[in-house]
């Protein structure tokens, strides 16, 4: 497999501490053409930008994850705005809502999400959205942001999409892309694969969420971007198409969304 665009990875994660430089150096030789390293906090976004500065195939998304939303105020929004000006930053993320872990109070999650969506609109940047067990509120926030600013258009991706086909259609209507990763290969999760099989080809993105969400049959290992081949094969088989062709189309989709 070649031409892989991993649209969601966390190469700043401590699980890469022992050999990060070597892993990143080897990615192009293992079929990875592009990867987006997503920040989860201000310090993590700075680290993602630093890594992106060292590797031409790596770009950064800067944002504050719902787990970190409790500390996100006006001061933090200003600091984030400064990071978003870096030319290696091509998206605002990872942002969203997580009602599964509830590490931050939900009202503060919604506030941080709204604030960052407004920032993305103001700076005309795509957003990388995390939605775990918060489908209704996530859709509501996106709709509000979409209609809130005249003449501008919110765009982005619902990463690791886990909702129903009905929700997928609502998200697609907003012009968003759907990101699919290792979950489509898990035996207990038929829904994401079914949605990935139905998603319009020009709105599909491949991702890992590395070092997490390693696809079968490698579950248990640390996930790295080349594992996307397993995800691509699973989705391509469900769609009755060639996995490399799917990977090529997803690469194009990612470059269109992130303007690369
Ligand atoms: Ni992530």
Please write out the topology.
Elements: E1 4-9, H1 20-26, E2 32-38, H2 42-54, E3 58-62, H3 74-84, E4 89-98, H4 106-123, E5 127-132, H5 135-148, E6 156-159, H6 165-173, E7 177-180, H7 190-198, E8 204-206, H8 228-239, H9 243-258
Parallel strand pairs: 1-2, 2-3, 3-4, 4-5, 5-6, 6-7, 7-8
Helix pairs in contact: 2-3, 4-5, 7-8, 8-9
Bound molecules: nickel (II) ion.
Provide structural commentary.
This protein is α/β, with parallel strands linked by helices. The protein has a single domain (4-258), classed as TIM Barrel (Alpha-Beta Barrel). It is built from nine helices and eight strands. The protein has helices at 20-26, 42-54, 74-84, 106-123, 135-148, 165-173, 190-198, 228-239, 243-258, and strands at 4-9, 32-38, 58-62, 89-98, 127-132, 156-159, 177-180, 204-206. It has an eight-stranded parallel beta sheet with strand order 1-2-3-4-5-6-7-8. Strand 5 (127-132), helix 5 (135-148) and strand 6 (156-159) form a beta-alpha-beta unit. The chain is globular and about 45 Å long. The mean pLDDT is 95. Bound molecules: nickel (II) ion (NI). Residues 8, 10, 38, 94, 209 line the site of nickel (II) ion.
């Amino acid at each position: 497999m070649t031409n892989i665009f991993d649209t969601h990875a966390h190469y700043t994660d401590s699980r890469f501490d022992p050999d990060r430089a070597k892993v990143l150096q080897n990615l192009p030789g293992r079929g990875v053409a592009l990867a987006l390293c997503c920040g989860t906090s201000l310090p993590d976004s700075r680290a993602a930008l630093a890594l992106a500065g060292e590797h031409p195939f790596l770009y950064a998304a800067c944002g504050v994850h719902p787990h970190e939303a409790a500390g996100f105020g006006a001061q933090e929004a200003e600091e984030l705005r400064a990071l978003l000006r870096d030319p290696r930053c091509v998206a605002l993320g990872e942002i969203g809502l997580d009602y599964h872990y509830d590490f931050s109070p939900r009202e503060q999650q919604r506030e941080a999400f709204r604030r960052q969506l407004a920032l993305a609109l103001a700076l005309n940047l795509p957003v990388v959205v995390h939605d775990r067990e918060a489908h209704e509120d996530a859709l509501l926030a996106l709709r509000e942001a979409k209609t809130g600013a005249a003449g501008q258009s919110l765009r982005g991706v619902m990463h690791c999409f886990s909702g129903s086909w009905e929700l997928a259609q609502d998200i697609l209507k907003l012009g968003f892309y759907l990101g699919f990763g290792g979950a489509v290969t898990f035996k207990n999760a038929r829904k994401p694969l079914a949605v990935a099989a139905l998603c319009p080809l020009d709105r599909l993105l491949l991702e890992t969420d590395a070092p997490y969400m390693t696809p079968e049959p490698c579950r248990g290992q640390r996930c790295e971007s080349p594992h996307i081949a397993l995800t691509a094969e699973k989705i391509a088989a469900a769609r009755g198409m060639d996995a490399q062709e799917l990977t090529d189309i997803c690469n194009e989709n990612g470059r269109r969304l992130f303007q690369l």
